[in-house]
Amino acid sequence: xxxxxxxxxxxxxxxxxxxxxxxxxxxxxFISDGKTYLKFAAIDGYINVLDLQLEGxxxxxxxxxxxxxRL
Length: 71
Fold this sequence. Notes:
The protein is mainly beta. The chain has a single domain (2-68), classed as Formyl transferase, C-terminal domain (Methionyl-tRNA Fmet Formyltransferase, Chain A, domain 2), CATH 3.10.25.10. The protein contains one helix and six strands. Strands 1, 2, 3, 4, 5 and 6 form a six-stranded antiparallel beta sheet that branches. Strand 1 (2-6) and strand 2 (9-19) form a beta hairpin. It starts with a strand and ends with a helix.
Protein backbone atom coordinates (compact mmCIF):
# COMPACT_ATOMS: atom_id res chain seq x y z
CA UNK A 1 0.00 0.00 0.00
CA UNK A 2 2.75 2.45 0.70
CA UNK A 3 5.93 3.44 2.47
CA UNK A 4 6.07 6.04 5.23
CA UNK A 5 8.86 7.33 7.44
CA UNK A 6 8.41 7.07 11.22
CA UNK A 7 11.19 8.17 13.58
CA UNK A 8 13.71 8.02 10.73
CA UNK A 9 12.78 4.44 9.71
CA UNK A 10 10.90 3.36 6.59
CA UNK A 11 7.58 1.70 7.34
CA UNK A 12 5.91 -0.43 4.64
CA UNK A 13 2.16 -0.89 4.92
CA UNK A 14 0.75 -4.19 3.64
CA UNK A 15 -2.79 -4.43 5.03
CA UNK A 16 -4.99 -1.50 6.04
CA UNK A 17 -8.61 -0.50 6.50
CA UNK A 18 -10.26 2.89 6.14
CA UNK A 19 -12.14 4.62 8.93
CA UNK A 20 -14.63 7.17 7.57
CA UNK A 21 -14.66 9.90 10.22
CA UNK A 22 -13.51 13.49 10.43
CA UNK A 23 -9.87 13.23 11.59
CA UNK A 24 -8.75 15.21 14.62
CA UNK A 25 -5.14 15.41 13.37
CA UNK A 26 -3.52 16.79 10.21
CA UNK A 27 -3.30 14.50 7.16
CA UNK A 28 -0.16 12.36 7.27
CA UNK A 29 0.17 12.39 11.06
CA PHE A 30 -0.25 9.16 13.00
CA ILE A 31 -1.89 8.27 16.28
CA SER A 32 -1.48 5.15 18.38
CA ASP A 33 -2.22 3.88 21.87
CA GLY A 34 1.23 2.26 21.83
CA LYS A 35 -0.24 -1.24 22.25
CA THR A 36 -3.06 -2.18 19.89
CA TYR A 37 -3.54 0.29 17.04
CA LEU A 38 -1.72 2.61 14.68
CA LYS A 39 -3.52 4.87 12.25
CA PHE A 40 -2.61 7.67 9.88
CA ALA A 41 -4.84 10.67 9.29
CA ALA A 42 -6.12 11.28 5.77
CA ILE A 43 -8.24 14.13 4.45
CA ASP A 44 -11.47 12.15 4.79
CA GLY A 45 -10.72 9.78 7.68
CA TYR A 46 -8.03 7.49 9.06
CA ILE A 47 -6.04 4.62 7.57
CA ASN A 48 -5.91 1.83 10.18
CA VAL A 49 -2.73 -0.20 9.83
CA LEU A 50 -3.07 -3.97 10.30
CA ASP A 51 0.09 -5.52 8.75
CA LEU A 52 3.35 -3.68 8.25
CA GLN A 53 7.12 -3.98 8.07
CA LEU A 54 9.61 -1.69 9.79
CA GLU A 55 12.93 -1.19 8.01
CA GLY A 56 15.27 -4.06 8.90
CA UNK A 57 12.49 -6.14 10.51
CA UNK A 58 10.15 -8.90 9.33
CA UNK A 59 6.55 -8.29 8.28
CA UNK A 60 4.22 -8.38 11.32
CA UNK A 61 0.86 -7.25 12.59
CA UNK A 62 0.62 -3.87 14.30
CA UNK A 63 0.38 -5.30 17.84
CA UNK A 64 3.65 -7.23 17.40
CA UNK A 65 5.41 -4.11 16.15
CA UNK A 66 4.11 -1.93 18.99
CA UNK A 67 5.29 -4.43 21.63
CA UNK A 68 8.89 -3.92 20.51
CA UNK A 69 9.04 -0.43 19.00
CA ARG A 70 8.15 2.91 20.59
CA LEU A 71 6.56 5.51 18.31
